[in-house]
Structures are given as structure tokens and as C-alpha cells.
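Because showing beats explaining, we let one protein speak, sequence and C-alpha cells together, and leave readers to judge.
___
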Amino acid sequence: MLKKEQIRIRDPFIYTDRENNCYYMYGTTALEKDSIAAKNTFSVYRTEDLENFSEPKVIFDGGKCGFWADRDFWAPELHKYNGKFYLFASCKAEDKHRATHIFVCDTPDGDFTPLTDEPITPADWECLDGTFWVENGKPYIVFSHEWTQVGDGEVWAMELTSDLKKANGEPFMLFKASQNPNVSSLTGFKDAYVTDGPFLYTEDGLLKMTWSSMYKGRYLVLDAWSDSLGGEWKHGGSRFDFDGGHAMIFETLDGTKMISLHSPNTANDERAVFYKF
């Protein structure tokens, strides 16, 4: 078994498995030393108490199936939909745009396979951190259009077909990073504003989102809210005063609402941290 503090991970995503009385932790784990660059595998850790974890189990190896991407396997998220388990994750290749690809499996810790040959995000966009949301019975992917291509990073949504295999309409923008006054330009770059890790949930009759950006060199967890995906998005300040981000919300087996993120945002030192939400 591994203690939480022994696991280097970015973007930790927790899936609560009530049927088997355990949790699964996914995230960016195939990390290169001294870098946020990653190799081409996704793994999962099983835990019953969020402190002691199994050894990692590889659930997808891009080098064994001729997959289009060969690096930076980032930020996998697990979502159960229509009886199947779907992994939404970011991938990259030298001659390909960074993109979100969807993978599928019958179990949360089995061997995942690509749902389609091509990624789901727009082919000519630099995209990452796709997440899943269902609104009025319709499935959507919500993702970041990366600052590396647009300067002022953006969060977009796109309806999917019921089988999640392709777009069911044009993508539409929710907001730009600079619309939140608590965000500053990425250190060393002029007019470069980051949008990372959107995650959606409902609370108090509103659609809410946690997402991450930068403020004077510190990684943030930020709040946004609207009455719907296509509504007007409003913005709140930094949720924490330390260097950490890419958060998601989950419930423990006893119903306690928690937030998961990695901190600090420094290569080699990233660890999963959990707080009551």
C-alpha cells in the first residue's frame, strides 16, 4: 500500500464507488522528473479511506495500440453514463494539437479503449481538460481552449451525441480567463491567461464551476456560476491562499462533500490534497 503523501500526482480526480465501498483516484501520474510533461499511460489507484492507496494499475497504455498521441497524458476524469464508464483525458503528439479524447470501459478500473479514432475536441484547436456534464438530458463536453493558441484562455462547451462519439452542434464559449479580475498573466508571458481544469456541479439552484488559473505566479482554484451552460457566467475569487489547483468535487461514502486538488504546483512535489467543501 502507498500513503497519499507518497504519490506524485497532478489533477487528482476521485470517483466514489458505493457498490464496492471504495474510491478510485485518477490523475496525471506518468510524469517526467523535474517537469509537468508526462508519458503515455493512464493509471488508477484504489483506496478505502483516502489515505492508503493500492499500487497504481495501468488502465490505458497508448504505446500498445497505435494510439494517435504519444505524450502528455494529462488530467483523466471518470464519469459513469448510461451504464458505462468514460474517461475524459488530455493527450498530445508532436504533430497533433493537444486534445481531449474519450475512452470507455465496463468497470472503473478495467482496460479502457478509445471510444473513437479521433479526439472529441475541435481538430484545429489546442484543447485540454475536458469534463462531462448533462444538462436537460443532453450530454456536453466542457473544455479549455488553451492560452498557447488564443492568448486569453477560454472555457467552451459542446453538445455531444447520445453515444458521446461526436459533436451534436457547434461549440460555444462560456468565458475567457481575463473576465475574472483575480487572474493575472502567466509569469514570463505578456497577455497570456490560463484556463485549466473546469469542473461542474449544482448548488443552491445554480450551475457552478471550479476552474484554475494563475495570479502572480500562484496556481488558483476559482469559482464561477450561471443559471445554465449558455447563461451569463459570474466570477468569484480564489478559494485557497496556497499554491494549488485543478480541483474537482466529490462525496465520500458517508456523504461528506469534499474538494480534491493538487498542491503545490511545483514539479516533483505535487500531491493530492482533500478538504471539506
About this structure: Helices lie at 147-150. The radius of gyration is 17 Å. The chain has a mean pLDDT of 97. Residues 147-150 form the longest helix (4 residues).
